[in-house]
Amino acid sequence: MGKIDENYFKMDDNMKHNTIEDILDEDENVLLRLKPKKSAYILNSFLTMLPFVLIWLCFDVGFIVIMATQANTPSIIWAFIVPFFAVHLMPVWIWLANILKANRNHKNLEYAFTEKRIIIRSGVIGIDFKNIYYSDIEGVNLKVGIIDRLCKVGDIYIQANTQTSVILDIENPYFILSKLQKIVLDIKTDIYFPNNLRPDENDGYKTKYKGFDK
Predict the structure, then answer these.
(1) Residues 40, 46, 51: CA angle, nearest 5 degrees
(2) Collapsing DSSP states into helix, strand and coil, what is residue 33?
(3) 141-200 per-position pLDDT tens digit
(4) CA 112, CA 148: separation in Å to the nearest integer?
(5) Gap between the Cα atoms of 58 and 64, Å rounded
(6) Sequential DSSP letters for 66-92
(7) In Å, what is the CA distance from 182 to each residue of 130, 171, 177, 179, 194?
(8) Exposed, middle or buried: residue 26 (CB in 10 Å: 0-12, 13-18, 19+)?
(9) Whose CA is closest to 145, among 127, 159, 166?
């Protein structure tokens, strides 16, 4: 048994910023780094639930207006109506909160493609990291909605094992999709049918793959 490195889990003073670089393996390089297009990301957050919220808001406002036009409405009724609709309008408050936090979400949301995996950095209060290894990817699909088309972006859906991840509102989505599909095919083919991706002098697990450079 080899000697245990006592400093293996010792935290580097530079690893305190919750960046993608903090979780990279030794000699692992970022081939491509992306962020959602801000205008598309915030606009999509605004339009999410909007039809439902408008119908809900019209119903509640209409009822409040009808009650307000009744001259003889007792004060005790208003004491019940005001807190009731403050709670009943919860879908509207949730919608507004989602819009307000969209900017914070966008600030922390980042996608990185390395030789081994896709790293998704996200979070509002704390920072979360999700790793998707190319060898685990089972399917890659692109969705471009009306708003996405107007903003010239798209969403890439990645099915890996039992989880689905989404790369949201990225520019040049067709180019990224084609490159990602090629990387997944290359790596899976090399795993099951060793091919020319492996150099003549193979460094084993340290062999690097440079998919986005090709």
Answers:
(1) 125
(2) strand
(3) 999 989 899 999 999 999 998 788 999 999 999 999 999 999 888 888 877 766 666 666
(4) 21
(5) 10
(6) HHHT-TT--HHHHHHHHHHHHHHTHHH
(7) 21, 18, 9, 5, 16
(8) exposed
(9) 166
